[in-house]
Amino acid sequence: MSPCAISWxxxxxxxxxxxxxxxWFPCRSICKIPKISSYSSRRMANFSTSSASPxxxxxxxSTPSTDATPTKPKxxxxxxxxxxxxxxxxxRHNVGFEMVDxxxxxxxxxxxxxxxxxxxxxxxxxxxxIILAKPQTLxxxxxxxxxxxxxxxxxxxxxxxxxxxxxxxxxxxxxxxPKGGHGGHNGMRSVIDHFKGSRDFPRLKIGIGRxxxxxxxxxxxxxxxxxxxxxxxxxAFHRGLEAVRILLLEGFNKSATFVNSAKxxxxxx
Length: 269
What we know:
The protein is of the alpha/beta class and about 270 residues long. It has helices at about 5-20, 40-45, 95-105, 145-150, 185-195, 215-220, 225-250, 250-260, 265-269; strands at about 75-80, 115, 120-125, 130-135, 160-165, 175, 205. The chain has one domain (about 75-269): Rossmann fold (3-Layer(aba) Sandwich), CATH 3.40.50. The longest helix has 24 residues, at about 225-250. One of its GO terms (molecular function) is tRNA binding. It is an enzyme of class 3 (hydrolase).
């Protein structure tokens, strides 16, 4: 075969590869790209915000591709606040932990990694990377975990969701807000302090109700739930899971409409 024929054959092979491959790689004679399952590729995703792999260079003799590379979704950090230790398990002050556990179980995310003074796991909600975290400091020092974690992964505060208990909300009621103060919640106070005073991050509040009679609020938040409360709370966690999915996939406004609407119970029927 003549040199010209070889050059023409290689050019046509390259053009054919570019039509059939989602991401084009320069070919020598034929396109050989190993197949990777979607599950494996998702697990191999890089959660850092460092730059992607070097740009691919097209053959000088071929026409440049006009296909634009899809924008890679940026990761979210979702943090549930609570107290570590068995004696706090199932208490009102730990509903943030339980909400994160609900998300992890539903999305198949393992929470067995310990770093930044937290239990955390990495995974996806559809194609959006998510980091779930449960700080293992005491509640009042939660910022010591959340602040460094958000900084290390370079996650903007608008994509850091805090989930925690709120005595000012009726029991099992959810409220999603784009920003705000700590409202007397010491865990949130600590997080805001470690965000250098910034309050511009979303938060999902879970209502635990007010203490009965003259009961000390400190003792109240450390009490467990009765059977009826547990059933209502489990339903609230289901709604919270849907809210987080909508938040990551469709944006804050749609999620807030779902969470804060008076019709949310009817929608889930």
